[in-house]
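In response to the reviewer comment on reproducibility (Comment 2.3), we provide here a single inverse folding case reported in full, input and output, so that an independent group could reproduce the run without further information from us. The C-alpha cells appear first.
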C-alpha cells in the first residue's frame, strides 16, 4: 500500500510540474491589446498565477489607469510540496489586491498592493477562491492545462467573462467544443508556444490558443474563399462513412459547395459564425456524434489497419485505391452563404 501511495503522489507531483507554465509578458501584451475596451470599470481576477511573479499581475497593475480598471486580484494554488511551487518565497498562500495608483507616479508601489493571506491553498476550486471569483467581471490567466475542462466549466457556471490560455487539444474536449459550437466561446488572436518554468528555463509546448467569450473584431471577419468545388471536385474526397467532403486546409474550403465539409480543427482560429455553421466534431471518441456510421461489412478487412492509425469504429475515414486514410479530427461545417 505504501508503494502504491508513493507512486500516486509522484504522479500528482509530475502532473503539477507539467502545469507550471508561466506566460511571458510579450505574449500577454500581444493579445491583450485587442481587448482594451472591455476592461473599463471592471474587476479583473487572475486566479491561477503566483502573485509574486505573475506577468498577468504585472501587465494589469502597470496598465491599471490606462485600462480604467476598478480592481485587480491575483492568486494561485499553493501546493503543500515545496518543490512544486514557483519561487518558494513563503509557506503561506496569499492573494494580491491592487486598487490603483495612490501617489500619482503611475507605478504599482509595494505599499499600494494589498497582501492578504489565505486560509487554504488557493486552489481555484476552493471556497475562498470562488468568493473572489464572484467579485470579478473578467478572468484572465493561464490555468492548469490538465484541469482546463473543469476550469472553463466553473467560469461558465458563474457567468464570467474570460480570456484564458489552453492547449490546442482543448478544442476537441466535449465541453469546450459545445461552447464553441453554441457561440459561447471562441479563439483569440494569437497562439502561444513558449512558457517559463519555475527554475527560470523556457519550455516549448504544442501550439496553445487564447480562449475567450469577449467579443472581438476577428470573429466577424469572413474567410476569403477562392477555390471552386465545381471546377476541381477530385480535390475533395468524400468520407466512406459520412456524407461530407474532406478539406485539408482552411484556405482550401470551396466557395461553391453547399453540403457538409470536414475541415481541420485549426479552422476555428478563423471561424466566423455569420459565414459558417458548425455541425459537429468528426470523431466519435470525443463523445460528440454527428451521425458518423460504423464501418460497413465490406470495410472489415481494413479495420486492423485503421485501428493501427489511431482511429476507432465510427471515426471519419476515406479510401483510395484500396488504401485507408484516417484524417486528424475534423470539424464538420456548412457554408451559410450558399
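Designed residues, in position order:
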Amino acid at each position: 500500500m505504501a508503494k502504491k501511495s508513493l507512486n500516486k503522489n509522484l504522479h500528482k507531483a509530475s502532473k503539477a510540474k507539467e502545469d507550471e507554465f508561466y506566460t511571458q509578458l510579450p505574449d500577454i501584451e500581444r493579445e491583450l491589446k485587442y481587448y482594451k475596451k472591455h476592461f473599463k470599470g471592471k474587476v479583473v481576477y487572475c486566479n491561477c498565477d503566483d502573485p509574486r511573479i505573475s506577468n498577468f499581475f504585472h501587465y494589469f497593475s502597470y496598465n491599471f489607469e490606462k485600462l480604467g480598471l476598478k480592481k485587480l486580484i491575483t492568486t494561485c494554488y499553493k501546493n503543500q510540496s515545496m518543490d512544486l511551487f514557483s519561487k518558494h518565497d513563503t509557506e503561506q498562500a496569499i492573494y494580491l489586491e491592487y486598487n490603483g495608483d495612490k501617489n500619482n507616479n503611475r507605478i504599482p508601489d509595494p505599499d499600494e498592493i494589498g497582501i492578504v493571506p489565505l486560509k487554504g491553498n488557493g486552489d481555484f476550486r476552493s471556497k475562498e477562491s470562488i468568493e473572489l471569483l464572484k467579485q470579478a467581471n473578467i478572468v484572465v490567466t493561464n490555468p492548469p492545462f490538465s484541469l482546463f475542462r473543469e476550469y472553463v466549466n466553473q467560469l461558465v457556471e458563474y457567468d464570467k467573462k474570460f480570456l484564458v490560455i489552453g492547449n490546442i487539444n482543448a478544442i476537441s474536449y466535449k465541453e469546450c467544443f459545445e461552447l464553441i459550437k453554441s457561440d459561447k466561446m471562441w479563439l483569440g488572436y494569437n497562439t502561444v508556444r513558449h512558457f517559463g518554468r519555475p527554475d527560470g528555463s523556457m519550455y516549448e509546448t504544442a501550439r496553445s490558443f487564447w480562449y475567450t467569450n469577449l467579443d472581438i473584431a476577428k470573429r466577424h471577419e469572413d474567410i476569403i474563399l477562392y477555390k471552386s468545388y465545381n471546377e476541381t471536385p477530385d480535390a475533395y474526397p468524400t468520407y466512406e462513412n459520412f456524407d461530407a467532403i474532406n478539406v485539408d486546409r482552411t484556405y482550401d474550403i470551396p466557395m461553391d459547395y453547399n453540403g457538409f465539409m470536414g475541415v481541420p480543427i485549426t479552422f476555428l482560429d478563423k471561424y466566423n459564425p455569420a459565414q459558417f455553421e458548425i455541425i459537429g466534431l468528426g470523431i466519435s471518441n470525443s463523445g460528440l456524434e454527428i451521425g458518423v456510421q460504423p464501418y460497413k461489412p465490406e470495410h472489415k478487412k481494413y479495420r486492423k489497419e485503421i485501428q493501427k492509425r489511431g482511429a476507432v469504429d465510427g471515426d471519419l475515414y476515406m479510401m483510395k485505391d484500396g488504401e485507408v486514410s484516417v484524417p486528424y479530427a475534423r470539424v464538420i461545417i456548412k457554408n451559410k452563404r450558399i
